[in-house]
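Table S5 (text form). Sequence records supplied for joint modeling of the three-component complex.
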Amino acid sequence: MDYKEILKQLVLQTAISGREEKMSFFIKDLFSELCDEVYVDSFFNVTGIKRGSGKGRILVTAHYDEIGFLVKNIDKKGFVRLASVGGVDNKILPAQEVVIHGKKEVYGVIGAKPPHLINVEEKKKVAKLEELYVDTGMTADSLKKVVSIGDAVTLRPKYRELLNSRISAKTVDNRCGVTALIAAMKELSMLKHESDIYFTATTQEEFDLAGAISTAYSVEPDLAIVIDACHGNVHDAPEDDIYTLGRGPAIGIGPQLDRIYTKKLFKTAKEYNIPYQTDVEAGDTGTEAWAVQVSRAGIPTTLISIPVRYMHTAIETVDMKDIINTAKLASRFAACALI
Amino acid sequence: MYLKDLTKLNGISGNEDEVRDYIKNNIINFADELKTDRLGNLIAYKRGNGRKLKVMLSAHMDEVGFMVTGHGKDGSVRFKPVGGIDERILPGKEVFIGPERIPGVIAIKPIHLQDKDTRNVNVKLKNLYIDIGADKKEEAEKAAPLGEFICFSDEYQEMGDSVVKAKALDDRVGCAILMDMAKEKYNFDLYLCFTVQEEIGLRGSETAAYQVAPDIALAVEGTTCSDVPEVEEQDYSTRLGEGAALTIMDRTAYADKRLTSFIYKLAQDKGLKVQYKQTTTGGNDAGKIQRSREGVITAAISVPCRYIHSPVSMMDKRDYESCKEIVRALLREIDTRQDFLDYIKNGGNFDV
Amino acid sequence: MFDLINKLCGTFGVSGNEEEIRSLIAGEIIEYVDEIFTDTLGNLIAVKRGNGKKIMYAAHMDEIGVMATHIDDNGFIRFSNVGWVSPQYSLGQRVRFKNGTQGVVFYEQKEELKNLKLSNMYIDIGAKNKEETEKKVKIGDTACFVGSTYKQENVIISKALDNRIGCAVLIKAIKEIETAKNELYFVFTVQEELGLRGAKTAAYKIMPDFAVVVDVTETGDTPECKTMEVKLGNGPAIKIKDNSVICHPFVKNILENKAKEIGIPYQYEILEEGGSDTGSILLTGGGIPAGAVSIPCRYVHSPSEMISVEDAENAVKLIKAAADI
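The corresponding structure-token record, covering 1016 residues in total, follows.
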């Protein structure tokens, strides 16, 4: 299976939190080839089940929604104002290319004041979203024929291959996780597993974890494995908060995560010679694990994170090797965790 | 004495084992069922005589502290707080790492070596580190591995006539009180819930409340007490020595008015010192319990603690005793009044 | 409509103290529903039995206010906010405690106005000293803002239109829906202003097939205001998103289609600050598809909120139509 190709297809699609319906069909098709049963729930979480012999139930999640914007207003001249969905860093927006998903896709740019016109004080400030706008080159009248208030706006999808099997694109967080889910399904097809394993591509993680909350509640697993992105190594960031690309997935440890299963996860990595790093989380992990852990009477939760540089930008960068190793780790762990 | 023992145990959020084991061993003879749930909550069940009423008392076993997050080439240990801690109290304090309690000190550049312009600037957490006496990274990694928990000093010190200084009074006071309540028998179903991970977001109480599904709940806590210099009277929150403090409203819950005023009047009737918490900041397990499932009638009672979330938290033993006796009086009232739930639902007015 | 709104806005119901408003609403609707009860947290739940889908409508009945936290030796009252209360909107306003005692909200005048915070403000009820104040006000007592309800042409100005106007819309819908095609639950929730609290337990109890919340939203049609599409008088707003929720497309589509079907003016709402019961309902249990119909309202959380009567009347029509799916 060509996982690079799968990641490419995933990152070129758009699905901001709350607008995942269209993409759910694509993921359903991908899952159908590898699972015994696939279903999509009312929140567009896509779940593929690989049945074992019923000895326990494991839930593996990776969210597929992305941060983005909604069209808030179209002014008299046709400039578009935006409301954010999820945590966008405004610093990347000036001169950023975007796509407005109206009745058809409309290409636009977020404006940037010419340097000649910016005074010294202004240069120091970060522009607020309220002050930014999208220029589509269209008049208000022609734009309003294809774009309505509330339409989704995303960073322009573009896929780049860098050296050393590294990929740079928008939404690598967390389409790399979804790729890992698919690769894990493939790996599991070749392993014996007694537990029933539910793989769910979840929605709305970037907004309010609605997908994780509804999935955990409905599936009621005995153990959960959350796959998400963690910060890849960049300059000038605290050493303890970044993980090196290519050195393997980061296994989370901390109060939020089950100590015994996490120990088993480390053991599995060592046993199968899968490279890994350690991610110390002193509280809220900022992932779906936070919601899953306290579902109903509680679910023992583990976290595997894939290092991704430049998170929440249009150039998120990942190493394919880390995705493959995440899949290997998750699948081998799932095959033996509940025994 | 439970409280002293409990404060000497280490139980940073997520690593409450020492505390849980102590409690388990000491109340095993008083509970009909003892269960440790998936998050690590310890739930002790005392069966009633068939009366259809479930009462939940909750106290959290975890305390604030730190976790090892990295190691310097020079053998220094880097850390992050677990739970809410004011960074300004950290420089120059002693800490203890892991189950072996490896001693360390939080390093600070001597004032002689500080730049003039940084002398009055607080050191940021990311620039703090712990010195355990190691010289090399490998040494530090072995003694204090990644993710290991780090606690404040556990010295329990009596002060003045009735004051005690110890770490983790929040919320070992609650744990000690709950352990005491385990000794009596009641005609209703009593669930003593020793919860985990309260300090990082009221985590354990959410799943505990879901499992127990009580009719009435009372969180027993340690709370802020700021009746000290440089604080205006309206910000005292509670006053040391003025008795147990009932919460009216905090960030996580508006306590049930009927139950809260019932407990207040009950305390007065029994001659037990009681006060209201007069600030609305902070939060505790009551926040999660109150909105569990279809809702729970919930209140919170606390022992005032000065310098809470620091190694030198202080309480007045008389406030602790009053809190304990008020909780006991409440349980006895519930035992006596067969229609307690309806009584509270209809206003719980204390008739003369 | 005005009489109902007047009665509702004038009734005390600060978050956590909704007894009086609950009583009033119950009295208004009891003849028109098959079942009515109060749940553990104080939500008022009324049912019109029917077959088909289980639909939950919700409107919060609590209002923001202040709570007395300290009485100084001179009888001045220090207070905390109950819900989001702006120091600027409160300065110089009057508040009214449940027992009718009125007070003036002012600030420590040595302080500069630009540093205005609730912690350097106080309430003055004109008492001579602490003892006198304590006869009227105790620690923990709550007070609502004073702002009489007034109709002028097509608008109503009042305190607590957030969310007594939502309650009014639901009450009218209850009275006008004769036979329910589906099973309709009307919930008047508590403690929304404290964090969308009551709605969570009511939703858990009911577990509807979908939910529609009625609340106010802000407008983008006043001088130099933040950009927002919603305008007073342009019809009820179908919520797309607020801080607590991205409305479920299923519900949004129902509301859109019904609005077109019955031919009422409508608009879309994207609220960038503030949440609603919609969020806590959506995240309950295994997830409940939820959306909202919002009444455009200027000056939200001030004692002089303003709505358009027509918007409210059209909202009633939309709620009734949606009940019929």
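Note: DSSP finds nine helices and 17 strands in chain A.
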